[in-house]
């Protein structure tokens, strides 16, 4: 690493400072919603799990060879369960719930992902030997252990640590099928103590690690009139006793844990709440002093890191899709996720080759109630989604198009009312969604575009349409995007179709294209 630094310095003297920027990674590592990360290294390869709440498939697994450039390679589950909330039926939904705060581990040639769900009331452990291509075996049990972290100790015992403020520990049965009776105990009575007694958020988001013979427990907390903060506790045994300290406090970058490189360099992976785009991951260097990990450069988040440069997040985290499939291809690339459980009989890539067909299965009242809405992350600092849709299969009362999904949503699309089609823009930032503009449409094909500007938390979006894919016109007004707790995720590009009069209508999406500015 030192030789590499020296080389960069020498090159920069001859070629200018731009060499440093080209050679080094930049924070944030990903300018998109990848929160609650858990990262491990197996040999020279890193794996990361993250949170996607109510989206399915769930618990994305990402892979990297350099800690900077990531691609989605798998999910821990296709669906979490079968209930009204998860299926978005009978007026229920799982917005802001589902599963979150997973813990990724590698033990005895198996990969494990633990998580939990208040929606189902269960704790989950998913297991596979092939994390990139395999199917995970599901182990689940009650109760739901909030923000749990999984740990396989050297003595053959397996533990879960969970909770908020008061942290608890249990030992699991040998087959991980439940809690070993009589092992539950309080691990740390007041894990928030290092930041004092005046706080908004108590210590939570636990991640446990062992390094240099000691156990290190990472948590996030939020002092009132302050910012999100990293707290670290350490102990000689996993069961304690623990001593804690305020470990890092800069820009609200917090919650995560430790990872080291094959060369022996250490980093902390953390995330930052960054408005409408979501919670975005950062890396900060770590050095060790007196048995404690010391985070950051002089206590600050560095803009650049001595790691390979970011190559961008397309197609690793998001990707364009022409909906053409060859033999052996996935029906949907892993960048796509459904809003809630998909209804598989009502979407198809085979009914019309080269198109995604979305067919309505029931009558709904709103974009947010719609099932089979297909989504991808938005990307900062600025990104756009573009699609072409064939509307010839719409029925009276149908709405279809391209949206930006969060509680305060917006969309551009078409509606069919009184058997006549109109191009519309709907702004859902107020309590009641407003159809801001409606334009008569006299053709069956329509091009749609949504552009989100997240730079410096501007968090605005504009919508456009075209009749020929050459002449684009703005429609409606600007959407003021906002990250809301009821949905608890960054905005998503969303392809949708819903009925308000009768089910059975369909639309065909020809492609989805995503473009993003680079993070510099």
Automatic annotation (TrEMBL):
Active site: residue positions: 36, 204
Annotated site residues (Important for catalytic activity, responsible for pKa modulation of the active site Glu and correct orientation of both the proton donor and substrate) in this chain: 147
UniProt cross-references to Gene3D superfamilies, sorted A to Z: 2.60.120.200, Glycosyl hydrolase domain, family 43 (2.115.10.20)
Signal peptide span: 1-21
UniProt xrefs under Pfam families: GH43_C2 (PF17851), Glyco_hydro_43 (PF04616)
Gene Ontology terms describing biological process: carbohydrate metabolic process
Domain Beta-xylosidase C-terminal Concanavalin A-like: from-to ranges: 321-515
Any one GO MF annotation of this record: hydrolase activity, hydrolyzing O-glycosyl compounds
Superkingdom as given in the UniProt entry: Bacteria
Keyword Cell membrane: no
Annotated SUPFAM superfamilies: Arabinanase/levansucrase/invertase (SSF75005), Concanavalin A-like lectins/glucanases (SSF49899)
Keyword annotations from UniProtKB, A to Z: Glycosidase, Hydrolase, Signal
Keyword Signal listed: yes
Record-stated family: Belongs to the glycosyl hydrolase 43 family.
Protein name (database record): Beta-xylosidase
């Amino acid at each position: 690493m030192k030789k590499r630094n020296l080389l960069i310095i020498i090159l920069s003297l001859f070629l200018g400072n731009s060499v440093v920027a080209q050679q080094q990674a930049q924070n944030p590592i990903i300018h998109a919603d990848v929160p609650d990360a858990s990262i491990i290294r197996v040999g020279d390869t890193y794996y990361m799990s993250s949170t996607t709440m109510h989206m399915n498939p769930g618990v994305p697994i990402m892979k990297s060879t350099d800690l900077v450039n990531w691609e989605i390679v798998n999910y821990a589950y296709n669906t979490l369960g079968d209930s009204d909330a998860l299926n978005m039926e009978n007026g229920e939904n799982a917005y802001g719930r589902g599963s979150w705060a997973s813990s990724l581990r590698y033990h005895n040639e198996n990969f494990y992902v633990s998580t939990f769900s208040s929606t189902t009331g269960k704790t989950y452990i998913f297991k596979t030997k092939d994390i990139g291509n395999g199917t995970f075996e599901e182990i689940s049990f009650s109760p739901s252990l909030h923000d749990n972290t999984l740990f396989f100790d050297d003595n053959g015992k397996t533990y879960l640590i969970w909770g908020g403020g008061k942290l608890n520990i249990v030992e699991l049965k040998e087959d991980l099928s439940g809690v070993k009776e009589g092992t539950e105990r309080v691990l740390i009575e007041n894990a928030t103590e290092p930041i004092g007694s005046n706080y908004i958020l108590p210590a939570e988001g636990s991640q446990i690690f062992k390094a240099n013979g000691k156990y290190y427990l990472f948590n996030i907390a939020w002092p009132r009139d302050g910012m999100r903060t990293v707290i670290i506790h350490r102990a000689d045994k996993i069961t304690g006793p623990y001593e804690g300290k305020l470990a890092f406090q800069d820009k609200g970058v917090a919650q995560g844990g430790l990872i080291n490189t094959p060369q022996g360099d250490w980093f902390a992976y953390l995330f930052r709440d960054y408005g409408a785009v979501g919670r975005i991951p950062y890396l900060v260097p770590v050095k060790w002093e007196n048995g404690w990990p010391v985070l950051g450069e002089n206590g600050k988040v560095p803009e650049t890191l001595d790691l390979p440069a970011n190559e961008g997040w397309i197609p690793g985290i998001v990707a364009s899709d022409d909906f053409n499939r060859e033999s052996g291809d996935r029906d949907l690339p892993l960048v796509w996720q459904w809003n809630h459980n998909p209804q598989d009989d009502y979407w198809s890539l085979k009914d019309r080759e080269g198109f995604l067909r979305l067919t309505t299965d029931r009558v709904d009242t709103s974009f947010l109630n719609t099932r089979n809405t297909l989504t991808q992350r938005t990307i900062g600092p600025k990104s756009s989604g573009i699609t072409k849709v064939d509307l010839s299969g719409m029925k009276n009362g149908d709405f279809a198009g391209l949206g930006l999904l969060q509680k305060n949503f917006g969309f551009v699309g078409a509606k069919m009312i009184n058997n006549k089609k109109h191009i519309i823009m709907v702004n859902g930032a107020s309590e009641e969604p407003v159809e801001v503009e409606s334009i008569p449409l006299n053709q069956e094909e329509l091009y749609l575009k949504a552009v989100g500007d997240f730079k410096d938390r501007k968090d605005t979006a504009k919508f456009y349409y075209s009749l020929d894919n050459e002449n684009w016109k703005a429609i409606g007004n600007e959407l003021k995007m906002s990250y809301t707790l009821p949905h608890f995720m960054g905005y998503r590009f969303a392809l949708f179709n819903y009925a308000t009069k009768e089910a059975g209508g369909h639309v065909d999406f020809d492609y989805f294209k995503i473009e993003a500015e680079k993070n510099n």
